[in-house]
Amino acid sequence: MSDQADQRAGEPQALPRRRFLKDAAGVAGGAGLLALGVGLHARQAGALPATALRPPGALPEADFLAACVRCGLCVRDCPYDTLKLAQLGDGVPVGTPCFNARSIPCEMCEDIPCVPACPTGALDRALTDIEEARMGLAVLIDQETCLNYLGLRCDVCYRVCPVIDKAITLEMIHNPRSDRHAMFLPTVHSDHCTGCGKCEQACVLPGESAIKVLPTHLAKGSTAEHYLKGWVEREAHGRSLIGDQVELPVRGMEGQAYGDTRLRPDAPPPAGDTRPYAPGGLDSGWKP
Amino acid sequence: MEAVSAAPQPISTRATAVRATVQRPGVDAVREKGWWRASKWLLARRLTQFGILAVFLIGPWFGVWIVKGNLSSSLTLEILPLTDVFLLAQMLAAGQWPYREALLGGGIVLAFYLLVGGRTFCSWVCPVNLVTDAAAWLRRRLGLKGGKKPSAHTRYWLLAFVLVAAAVTGTLAWEWVNPVSMLHRGLIFGFGLAWGIVLAVFLYDLFIASRGWCGHLCPMGACYSLLGRVALARVSADKRRLCDDCMDCFAVCPEPQVIRPALKAAGQDHPLILDPNCTTCGRCVDVCSKDVFRITTRFDRSES
């Protein structure tokens, strides 16, 4: 009450001052709300769709969104028109560079021209060897439609891989369907896959590819750090950490060496691979 | 030491400007000076705006690469880097330290606009100026009045909050909606739905707030306003004694509150418009049939 009385009795500036404070509070509040909305929207919409891949050398996504000024200089220096700037409505943070491996994959230029083009460091110049790039990780995502998994010899993803025999290998296993053929399964190795997407683009399936490059955090499980791999430990220490296994006699095979499970040990050993876990699992005994 | 004590006056200045809204400012000037002389600075400005757009566009359109990139950051003739200071400020607020190219480019841009005047970016370079000028022209022609104008200080608050949002979210949050970078990038790299945001700015300026975007909200313009304190290029009302109070300059000026101190000697003696919000667009020079205004330097306080 006394404040009000003072103001009324006091200088006429009191009213403009109060009005100014009210206006300033309104303006600041409005601007703050707008900025807050934009900030929240940016956070929420910041998740990159799994099919949008960043250029080689891109910082981790959170840092990338802080460093990229969306100028498109990397796009301009990409000789294969792989990189595009995302447009509003694409689902990718607007104006940031990305590529879709199924349409135009990264050709893994040796001089990586997009990286030095970046003025802000959103693309890290520490990347000088394109084979060290990790734009994502290829995953053979559909084993039901992949022709190699059907027992055919498509091999196209393997053949086009720029890091062939390291990033993608063909693992031969027995074909249980025919029980007499092999299957050559394209297998991706994260140690060498750069995520360039050549395999995804080349996959011969008419629509979606059976092999897809995904962001690494989606493509890989985390390592089971708490689990000691016995075979690794044995190699490192020269012996098993848990000591030798107890050898229990197997009834009916007492005369045979431990691990020898042949029913007729007198018979001559079969020709070829005699390792107990030779590729193929089932062995029908059929020979061509 | 000129104390620009315009603070107590803005409301009355704005009221004067609103009253002065005339549909066709510059008609007298065209009659007296001829169309060319009454459109000199407007033509120069449009030529600059389209010229800058053109050097960015002949690369992607015709394969002649003079300038690569866009206004956010560009590389001219493979040697000259230029980086927008507002984007650089956001980036630093978001906690990223850029490479030398971006810092150098930002430094060049900063030095240029400190020298010439920050808001010259708005009137001579920014592509949104074409949009908001069109909205202002249409609003005058249609005689649209009213609407709700936010305080002209909103832009500074917005600028502060944009930087806070960048720091808190760790991303260039404003670039999700920034119509300025979006329009320029859209013209060069493809729009997507960005035209919707540009249309929103146009409609906002047309129906809701006269000169609302550039003069009251745009935090990028606010950032460049902050660079306008020591600008060399300034408008002077050096023949203000000839002023016949036709109000044409108030009607065309995108920041009409800057005129009165110089023209009517309100709070200052000299005829220079030193308000950092003056965009030095030169439109007042064009539309004045008495040639009251001219563009000069901030040291030229002569009156004639």
UniProtKB/TrEMBL annotation, chain A:
The keyword Lipoprotein appears for this protein: no
Pfam families: Fer4_4, Fer4_7
PROSITE patterns: 4FE4S_FER_2, TAT
Stretch list, region Disordered: 258-288
Keyword list, A-Z: 4Fe-4S, Electron transport, Iron, Iron-sulfur, Metal-binding, Repeat, Transport
GO molecular function, one term: 4 iron, 4 sulfur cluster binding
Transmembrane intervals: none
Domain 4Fe-4S ferredoxin-type: 58-88, 184-216
Protein name: Ferredoxin-type protein NapG
Organism for this UniProt entry: Pseudothauera lacus
UniProtKB/TrEMBL annotation, chain B:
Keywords: 4Fe-4S, Electron transport, Iron, Iron-sulfur, Membrane, Metal-binding, Repeat, Transmembrane, Transmembrane helix, Transport
Ranges where the 4Fe-4S ferredoxin-type domain occurs: 233-264, 270-298
Coiled-coil ranges per UniProt: none
Keyword Iron-sulfur: yes
Annotated GO MF terms: 4 iron, 4 sulfur cluster binding; metal ion binding
SUPFAM superfamilies: 4Fe-4S ferredoxins (SSF54862)
Chain ranges passing through the membrane: 47-67, 111-135, 156-174, 186-207
Gene Ontology CC terms, in alphabetical order: plasma membrane
PANTHER family per UniProt: FERREDOXIN-TYPE PROTEIN NAPH
Name assigned to this protein: Quinol dehydrogenase ferredoxin subunit NapH
Organism, scientific name: Pseudothauera lacus
